[in-house]
């Protein structure tokens, strides 16, 4: 029982129209909007807030291993000369939570048959972006893809690419 300290860092803060609009400095920064104290109750205590050292955390987000030195472009869609990360659906060369949102917007616009002005923009995306939206590789872009991308973004799933299946002889 007691109080716990809750802190965090903002990795991405943006708003969406048909393109990402980054709000503020795009580098990780402390979440300083308030102080949160959580009353913890229970019979087992693993670590008290007083013993907690925030230096135990690895600050700053590590780039996903994608075999590229991708750099976010400022005016998507881009050709991503330095490489494109797997899952980049919005064309900015990097995979992050904005790609999840972009895919969700695409699915909503597809349900409306791309009749809005935003839908018209999304209807003519480059193949590399629509291929990235089909995250579960079933040939369709739907909310399951957005969910898959979200789970990858939060580290619950991984992208699997270049799978080779070898037949094992019956012996």
Care to give the gist of this entry?
The chain is of the alpha+beta class and 171 residues long.
Structural features, described:
It is a single chain. With 171 residues, the chain is α+β, with helices and mostly antiparallel strands. Helix content is 23%, strand content 12%. It contains four helices and six strands; from the N terminus they run ββββββαααα. The chain has helices at residues 97-111, 117-123, 127-133, 143-153, and strands spanning 2-6, 9-10, 14-16, 20-22, 29-30, 36-40. Strands 1-6 form a two-stranded antiparallel sheet. Strands 2-5 form a two-stranded antiparallel ribbon. A hairpin with a 3-residue loop joins β3 (14-16) and β4. α1 runs antiparallel to α4. The chain is globular. 19% of the residues are buried.
Strands, helices and their partners?
Elements: E1 2-6, E2 9-10, E3 14-16, E4 20-22, E5 29-30, E6 36-40, H1 97-111, H2 117-123, H3 127-133, H4 143-153
Antiparallel strand pairs: 1-6, 2-5, 3-4
Helix pairs in contact: 1-4
Q: Which tags fit this structure?
A:
single chain, 171 residues, alpha+beta, two-stranded antiparallel ribbon, 4 helices, 23% helix
């Amino acid at each position: 029982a007691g109080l716990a300290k809750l802190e965090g860092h903002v990795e991405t803060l943006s708003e969406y129209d048909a393109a990402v609009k980054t709000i503020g400095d795009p580098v990780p920064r402390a979440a300083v909007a308030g102080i949160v104290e959580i009353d913890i109750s229970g019979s087992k205590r693993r670590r008290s807030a007083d013993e907690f050292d925030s230096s135990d955390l690895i600050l700053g987000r590590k780039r996903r291993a994608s075999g590229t030195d991708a750099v976010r472009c400022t005016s998507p869609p881009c050709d991503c000369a330095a490489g494109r990360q797997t899952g980049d659906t919005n064309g900015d060369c990097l995979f992050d939570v904005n790609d999840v949102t972009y895919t969700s917007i695409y699915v909503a616009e597809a349900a409306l048959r791309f009749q809005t002005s935003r839908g018209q923009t999304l209807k003519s995306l480059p193949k590399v972006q629509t291929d990235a939206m089909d995250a579960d590789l079933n040939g369709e872009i739907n909310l399951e893809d957005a969910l898959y991308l979200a789970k990858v973004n939060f580290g619950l799933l991984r992208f699997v690419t270049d799978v080779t299946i070898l037949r094992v002889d019956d012996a």
